[in-house]
Amino acid sequence: MPTRKPLQGPIIGDQRQGALRVVGLFAGIGGLELGLKAAGHSVEIVAENDPVASLVLARRFPDVVNLGDITRIGKLPECDVLACGFPCQDLSPAGGTAGIHGPKSGLVSHVLHLVHAARRKPKWMCFENVPFLLSLKRGAGMRYLTRKIEEAGYTWAYRVIDSRAFGLAQRRRRIFLLASRVEDPSEFLFSDVGASREPEWVPDTPCGFYWTEGNRGVGWAVDATPPLKGTSGVGIASPPAIWRSGSRDFVTPTIEDAEALQGFRRGWTAFSSEEAVADRLRWRLVGNAVSVPAAGWVGRILAGQSVQRRPEAKELDAAHPWPIAGYGGKNRRCKVEVSEWPGRKAYVGLSEFLSDAAPPLSLRAASGFLSRLERSGLRVPPEFTRDLRDFVARQGATANGWGDERADEPNARARQSAGKSSAVSSVS
């Protein structure tokens, strides 16, 4: 098979106008900060407590100070933009749904306290999290967040964004909330409204799904993966599976594929052999990261490259459910009809992100998922079920079955870099 050529040009252009000083809290491996930097802003300080993520930050942002534990910061550093992709574990359907006051997501309260107490407050704040924040406990988390933002003297606007809008083959919907003391964020965030380009399945189109599910849902995504996750509840890496109907097989992305699907350069979280960081830890870091090109889009907005009048809006009462896009301030809420797909980036298919030697889904995973799927009665294309049954039969007929697959995993990971060193050129 010929080696596929990498896409040409960066996902995000490097703009040098309207540069702002950025402080990034809960920085992780720097996805939000990297996107803002690529849009021309200056990342000056980060705060990240995770030791493995901190190693990545030290390598990729060598001149940026890491303040570490957010709870030990006594005073907010002066900045123009405060970027905050705060923990989502208590706000996600896959987590404990404890809400915004849970043990992990509740750490955002420290950020809000620092902002409220700051003598010189940031001009802008940017928060990123999962859309379930809008509906969990009837939107209590969103009410808390916007109320605290308003009490600090800010107006706000938010929008649910799908990462596929920026050329990534990952269906990853996230809230981006902008708040400002000096501008009307509703005149920034809803510009370049875009339109959905949801792909439809036709024969030979790859589809991503969660092989760990099968009773309640499969996370089905046409020509994309479902949202990348960190690890399972017991700390095991759980990359999505991909059905390649053309070759009637089932594979999983490598960790380098996952980095590309988040908009990072391949090898962004790689460590030397002496450091010996397990792939499951890299999966946790990548799965919890902010998609880089989505952050870059926000960065270009903050640079003033897309200011325009906001779309028509409808005022909502306090009891109304939170829409997917809106703005407000001073106890006022408005709904905006806008797409989750800003920009006009050409859709990039999943095949462009997969290594040529993507490892097959294991027999244990495939047979377990097939059993759950058949018991559940969930609707999937009949071709999918047929191919999965045949795949399990072929894998089971292998001389040593599961043992052979496990033994070959190191070789599969080594082979992947030879066929495709970079599926997508991205910022570095």
UniProtKB/TrEMBL annotation:
InterPro entries: C5-MTase, C5_DNA_meth_AS, C5_MeTfrase, SAM-dependent_MTases_sf. It catalyses: a 2'-deoxycytidine in DNA + S-adenosyl-L-methionine = a 5-methyl-2'-deoxycytidine in DNA + S-adenosyl-L-homocysteine + H(+). The active site is at 88. One of its GO terms (biological process) is methylation. Residues 403-412 have a biased composition (Basic and acidic residues). One of its GO terms (molecular function) is DNA (cytosine-5-)-methyltransferase activity. It is an enzyme of class 2 (transferase). Keywords: Methyltransferase, Restriction system, S-adenosyl-L-methionine, Transferase. Residues 417-428 have a biased composition (Low complexity). Coiled coil: none annotated. Its EC number is 2.1.1.37. Residues 397-428 are annotated as: Disordered. Belongs to the class I-like SAM-binding methyltransferase superfamily. C5-methyltransferase family. This is Cytosine-specific methyltransferase. The lineage of its organism: Bacteria, Pseudomonadati, Pseudomonadota, Alphaproteobacteria, Hyphomicrobiales. The gene is ydiP.
